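Researcher: Structure prediction, please.
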Amino acid sequence: MAAAYGAWGEKKNYGKTYEGLIRSTIVVDPDGKVALAQYNVRATGHVAKLRRDLSLDA
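Model: Predicted structure follows.
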């Protein structure tokens, strides 16, 4: 599933390259279509930004 959504791929950490889970947010609408995809997200402030992007009340 992660590969299908583009959330699995090449990462770098401390100069080493490896494959792993890319911190991502995928929003799927009621019809099953991807409404929003964000990759390499940071935990700090992410929910607030996501709510703004989706035009939801803060």
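Model: DSSP finds one helix and four strands in the chain.
Researcher: Thanks, that helps.
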